[in-house]
Amino acid sequence: MTNHASNPARRVVVTGLGIVSPLGQNACDTWNALVEARSGTRRITLFDPAGFDSQVAGEVPDFDPAAYMDRKVARRADRATQFAFVAADEALAQSGFRPAPDDGSEVAVIVGTAIGGITTLSAEFETLYTKGPGRVSPFLMPMMLADMTSGQLSIRIGARGVNYCLVSACASGADSIGEAANIIRRGDAEVALAGGTEAPITPIVVAGFASSKALTTANDDPARASRPFDARRDGFVLAEGAAVLVLESEEHARARGATILAELAGYGATSDAYHITQPDERGEGAARAMQMALRQAGLQPDEIDYLNAHGTSTPMNDRLETLAIKRVFGEYAYDLPISSSKSMTGHLLGAAGAVEAAICVLALQKQIIPPTANYEVPDPDCDLDYVPNVARPARLEAVMTNSLGFGGHNSSLIFRTYRAAP
């Protein structure tokens, strides 16, 4: 392993990305649906939702793991891990990178999740109650563990560097990307697969979120159920999927002639230290995360050309995130294009920040801002430019994405167009 001194100025770049989402099983299909403002929300099919307050979700349609991996591998991997395998394979293929067969010691894998293998755990509880303890799968424990996605992914590709799962609720995916960049900056890896994955659409999760009044009850109109920043928003749409980015040190990427998609220029993470589920009423924690990311990127607020908001479609989040944006950007907040991709993907919990990070990289590549779908009735407390309903061509040099989570977690990432130093 190359021994690098810790260097905060060491540049980290993105050379590949992969997405599995309710809008498609690859980045291209997901992006095309986003710019067309198509919704991935439908009535739940993974179980019978009759009797549940919320009966809609963002499921990955027609997902067949056997189309992507050996059936034996698929049987021993939770649905969340399967999603991550597909996203990672796409990201690696785009990057053109594979660890050397005999040495992957400079390759890290950091994949976050909020809930882990809840699909497997739920199914095995059913087995325990209906068939007895002797019928519980011997693979239950490794399949349900939150870290098993990163562990299995490292085995799958031969990555022998830093390997762990980061759990910070709905900020997990963003934090995984930010911390992976820090690992590269301090010289502990040259390459990192970083992102998030989630497969939470199970009866217990839907019932739990519904009991806390976090989910939408717009069951009669699934495609319009997620409506961030709209005055009629009533809760988020639970969703599943994954996204993985290939991050590299600039030196490593350039030495192998990789196509660089973007630079990961800034990362900030804070805690509200306020409430287990509610954001800080002043938006102070989220504001500090954005300010930290700006400082690390060496950018002024008015140099951000687009902000991909956390934008969950809950009454409280959207109002307080808007307040936090105003704290950071001042008057420029009214000129800053902001959108929430959750209006179309739903809320992928621990994978949300990773999916939205990938969307930001795609926005830089395509020079298009995806819209906030279903924005129809303005809310006086949410009075910024949310790019309503129609994608917008724009000159984008630097973009920010926010991720906020239960427990008071706040994370912000900044991506910018890569330009080599003169």
UniProtKB/TrEMBL annotation:
EC code: 2.3.1.179
Entry superkingdom: Bacteria
First-tier enzyme category under EC: transferase
CDD domains tied to this protein: KAS_I_II
Keywords on record: Acyltransferase, Fatty acid biosynthesis, Fatty acid metabolism, Lipid biosynthesis, Lipid metabolism, Transferase
GO molecular function: 3-oxoacyl-[acyl-carrier-protein] synthase activity
Keyword Metal-binding part of the UniProt annotation: no
Pathway: Lipid metabolism; fatty acid biosynthesis
Keyword Chloroplast found: no
InterPro entries linked: 3-oxoacyl-ACP_synth-2, Beta-ketoacyl_synthase, Ketoacyl_synth_AS, Ketoacyl_synth_C, Ketoacyl_synth_N, PKS_Beta-ketoAc_synthase_dom, Thiolase-like
Residues annotated as domain Ketosynthase family 3 (KS3): 9-417
Protein name: 3-oxoacyl-[acyl-carrier-protein] synthase 2
Family of this protein: Belongs to the thiolase-like superfamily. Beta-ketoacyl-ACP synthases family.
Known catalytic reactions: (9Z)-hexadecenoyl-[ACP] + malonyl-[ACP] + H(+) = 3-oxo-(11Z)-octadecenoyl-[ACP] + holo-[ACP] + CO2; a fatty acyl-[ACP] + malonyl-[ACP] + H(+) = a 3-oxoacyl-[ACP] + holo-[ACP] + CO2
Reported function: Involved in the type II fatty acid elongation cycle. Catalyzes the elongation of a wide range of acyl-ACP by the addition of two carbons from malonyl-ACP to an acyl acceptor. Can efficiently catalyze the conversion of palmitoleoyl-ACP (cis-hexadec-9-enoyl-ACP) to cis-vaccenoyl-ACP (cis-octadec-11-enoyl-ACP), an essential step in the thermal regulation of fatty acid composition.
